[in-house]
Design goal:
Protein name: Polysaccharide biosynthesis protein C-terminal domain-containing protein
Organism: uncultured Blastococcus sp
Membrane topology: Multi-pass membrane protein
InterPro entries: Poly_Biosynth_Transport
Largest sheet: none
Helix content: over 70%
Subcellular location: Cell membrane
Number of domains: 1
Shape: globular
Structural class: mainly alpha
Length: about 500
């Protein structure tokens, strides 16, 4: 692929009209396939590793990952997202971004190494444990791969991105972790799995893009650096707040209740995150670059935002009901009887699956329109809500922490919805009505799933209860959706577009 020295006028290419371009919808399909495959692999890892490793070993690895996760996020510095969002992109911009990202990764890895004794003590890890020093390797690898990942998103190459991420997780994390766990490596097997996944992501992403790595003259590097940092610094501020929002509960649990409680809590949250990531993260990957290309057309932005939110609600509301009803069976099937304490926190989290997924749509819109500074303080508000809610809830153990985190999720959903509404008059009302359209799907799922599960429990094993109840609930939701088809015309049109093949005149946007 060629990266010209002159400005790449990719924003001058015609963008098809309509609420969603065909390339974006097909990108959603490929991203969904990749995310579904990764979710299946993650479920496999949950099933296998929960039976090979102890709760204490999971808690130890989770506590180390919480700390390293902040460093990984800081290492990315929003540079990859700046690559995606930029209206114009030069060869010098790409090379400078790569050097900046790589240097930041190395510096943060060194800082993590130096601070690991104090950080380990803060989260309850054994003195002198090797977990944090080992995770510093992930920082270096993440810094090297950030720009390539951003370019893949910018080019809307979601098929390549999805397959690469699926391979890196399956072969890298899952293959490494399971092999080492059976070999008796304990918590270290999870650490090595993260390193292997990061390495495969780096190799795969760069092989697909092969972007320039040598910056031009010093003057060019300075100009490029200023343009990149103008977006990435504000975005990074938002990301720090987002990290605290996503991990403040983990920090509260491990520091107040201990790493063993963190293992139980993190398993419950991970089971919530699986469907949320499958839908929300996929939508974000597609919407962010797609909305960035129409960021000056507020009317189209509003239509795309409302439609994306409605699609999220159609998928998550019935799933939320099934997750709540079947939480005991899901925990027993996936984790085993030793993890039964996970069921109640999982049921609490199930109630907020829709807002937990939907606020990612608002985040996509915020970044696509360049309003990252406004989004940053809202992420910090969310971080404060999570931390305070979980501290208060910790007096009632893990269910209390889950309830506190859930309240914070709902508050953040409405905060981000109000912020998104700035782009178009009446947008918040249209979005809420779009979400409300899916309430009958949830009610129909509950009306069918609850009696089926109640009648089967005690007379059938957990697998039969889960399969029959899920099938009954999904059938009820599908019938309700079919009956109310006229209210979901735009949503069905997206499905039709996803199934259609691209025409010969379709152009996949690329850098340069």
């Amino acid at each position: 692929m060629n990266f010209p020295d002159t400005t790449a006028a990719d924003t001058d290419r015609p963008v098809p009209s309509g609420p969603m371009t065909g390339s974006a919808v097909r990108g959603l399909s490929w991203s969904l396939v990749g995310a579904l495959g990764q979710s299946i692999l993650q479920f496999v890892s949950i099933v296998v590793l929960s039976r090979v490793l102890s709760i204490e070993e999971f808690g130890t690895a989770a506590a180390a990952t919480v700390v390293a996760g902040l460093a990984v996020m800081l290492g990315q510095q929003g540079i990859g997202s700046a690559i995606v969002q930029a209206r114009e992109l030069r060869r010098a911009d790409v090379a400078t971004a790569f050097c900046m990202s790589a240097a930041i990764g190395v510096v943060l890895a060194a800082l993590l190494l130096l601070a690991s004794p104090l950080l380990a003590q803060a989260v309850g890890l054994p003195a002198g444990s090797p977990y944090l020093p080992m995770l510093s390797i992930v920082l270096v690898l993440g810094g090297l791969s950030g720009v390539a990942m951003g370019l893949l998103q910018r080019q809307l190459r979601f098929r390549d991105l999805g397959l690469m991420e699926l391979t890196s997780y399956g072969v890298g994390y899952l293959g490494t972790s399971v092999t080492l766990a059976f070999a008796g490596a304990g918590a270290m097997s999870l650490i090595w799995g993260q390193i292997a996944q990061a390495l495969m992501t780096l190799v795969g992403a760069y092989a697909l893009v092969r972007h320039p790595v040598r910056p031009g003259s010093l003057a060019e590097a300075r100009r490029s650096g200023r343009r990149i940092l103008g977006f990435s610094s504000a975005y990074s501020l938002a990301q720090v707040g987002n990290w605290v929002g996503l991990n403040g509960d983990n920090l509260v649990v491990t520091s107040v209740l201990g790493p063993t409680s963190l293992a139980l809590y993190s398993r419950a949250y991970q089971l919530l995150v699986q469907p949320a990531n499958l839908i929300g993260t996929v939508a974000d990957k597609v919407l962010f670059p797609s909305l960035s290309r129409i960021q000056d057309d507020r009317e189209r932005l509003g239509r795309a935002y409302v439609l994306a939110g409605s699609l999220v609600a159609v998928l998550t509301m019935p799933a939320s009901v099934l997750l709540f009803v079947l939480a005991p069976e899901i925990v027993t099937i996936l984790l085993g009887d030793a993890w039964s304490a996970v069921a109640l926190p999982l049921q609490i989290f199930a109630v907020v699956l829709m807002p937990r997924t939907a606020y990612k749509i608002s985040g996509s819109l915020t970044r696509a329109t360049g309003a990252v500074l406004g989004g940053a303080w809202r992420q910090w508000l969310y971080a404060a809500e999570v931390t305070v809610g979980c501290l208060v809830g910790s007096h009632w153990g893990l269910p209390g922490v889950a309830a506190g985190a859930s309240v914070a999720i709902v508050l953040h959903f409405f905060t981000m919805l109000a912020f998104s509404a700035r782009i178009s008059r009446g947008l918040a009302g249209r979005a809420l009505r779009a979400y409300a359209k899916s309430l009958p799907l949830a009610l129909a799922t509950a009306a069918c799933a609850l009696p089926v599960a109640t009648s089967l429990r005690g007379s059938a094993n957990e697998v039969v209860v889960a399969l029959v109840t899920a099938a009954a609930g999904a059938a009820a939701a599908l019938v309700t959706l079919t009956i109310g088809r006229r209210y979901f015309r735009d949503e069905f049109s997206v499905w039709s577009a996803a199934r259609s093949r691209p025409t010969r005149t379709s152009v996949t946007p690329s850098v340069g």
